[in-house]
Amino acid sequence: MSVQRVSSKREGALEQELRSLPERITGGDRATWVDACVHLAVVDLGQTWELRTRDNTIHVRRGPSRETPHVVLAGDSAALTGLLRGEMAGIELIVDGRMTVRGSIDTAVTLEAMVRPDSGPLPTIDVQHVHVGKERVAVLSSGTGPDVVCIHGLGASRTSFLELGHRLAGSYRVHLVDLPGFGASSTPVRAAYDAPWFADHVLGVMDQLRIDRAHLVGNSMGGRVAIEAGLRAPERVTALGLLAPAVAFVRRGFHPLVRLARPELGVLPHGIRRGIVEKQLLSFFADPGAIDPALADAIVEEFRTRQRSPAARAALYSAARRIYLEAPFGRDGFYPRLAQLQVPAMFIWGSHDRLVPAAFARHVTEWMPAAQQIVLDGCGHVPQVEHPELTTELLDGFFAHADAARPMRRRRLRRVAAA
User: Fold this and answer.
1) Secondary structure (3-state) at 10
2) Given the DSSP bridges, would you call strands 47-54 and 57-62 parallel, antiparallel or unpaired?
């Protein structure tokens, strides 16, 4: 078969998938609609397409975008056709280097969820907003099986769990949550933004999704939130997977300065320079080269776009302040409370984590000796991004063991409650 005929065949297959998009829009409660302009660059065919979501449909047009796109997706025709058919997931293509994304990653994921796969085997992705009290919380769900809720870290969003969530979705029903104040969730100007407040919202999301109990996975601040949820509602948490969790700092040399740094200052007009955000992002990795430059660029731009909102800046500063100022000891200190945790927990630390060093494991061991502790060599602060395969393997085995032991734990909880 000639090169020209192969090219023509690929072009025809891609165009067929693109033209069918308006007929495959999911509606009702299955997706949260987003108005966006998406620029599609088909690198091997030299084509460009514009996808404009508006008025509960997708307008498909060949040619360059007429407006500034919210997201630019670039890949070869075979990869993009597989994505549209549901044969491949967007995060798979990004990780494999077959597709790049610039702009809003969340918009790209939401668009993927809005379109019903043509014939592919991938689990359907649901994007929705649930209301917990006065707040609107964005959730991305996929897969089938026991429920797993993933909670992101400070300044991040559910997109930091995309690859891990995709890997776990083969065995679990995975829910990626944007905490209030972050990502696509609402941002109250006046809120506690501490672990108990966030934990109540995570449990509230479970209520709204009718999840009786779940495994919780949390990274950094999300790990602290997961611990709090386990302390507040142990009967609803089967197991905790804690990835470099933000446990209480024992030595806090900047404590007086942080106490004086009021989160209300976030409402004052100012921006965070791109170089600072990029440097901070790369510092989370033992090997900065482990993250694709195009993906890093998209994460940096998404963060900067979000932080242009005064309310988002105030939420970031408030949450950071609460984490740093949490008392480690005393009657209501973090570590004495950690000793009361009844939920099985596995702590995964990074050997090269400069933000929450693996040395914190010794404090956890002192107060919670039954917890599993694992240090990943050559890993920084985000194990789910830097070592997704190994992290998935560890969590999968731990959760399977916890599921098998759940009846025994349920009887133990009843005895404790009776006492």
Assistant:
1) helix
2) antiparallel
- Are 384 and 391 in contact by the 8 Å Cβ rule? The answer is yes
Locate the domains of the chain by residue range. 3-114, 126-418
Q: Which residues contact 226 (CB under 8 A, 6 or more apart)?
A: 151, 199, 202, 216, 217, 218, 237, 240, 241, 242, 245
Topology classification of domain 126-418: Rossmann fold (3.40.50)
pTM of the entire predicted model = 0.89
Digit-coded pLDDT (tens) for 129-150: 999 999 999 999 999 999 999 9
CA separation for the pair 340, 148 (Å, rounded): 23
How confident is the model over 295-310, as pLDDT tens digits?
788 888 888 888 888 8
Which CATH code, of 3.10.25.10, 3.30.1050.10, 3.30.1540.20, 3.30.70.20, is assigned to 3-114? 3.30.1050.10
Phi, psi of 209, deg, nearest 5: -90, 5
Buried b (16+ CB within 10 A) or exposed e, 230-246: bbebbebbbbbbbbbbb
286 and 292 in contact (C-beta within 8 Å)?
no
Amino acid at 86: G
3-state DSSP call for residue 46?
Answer: coil
Quick one: tokens of 303? 């963060």
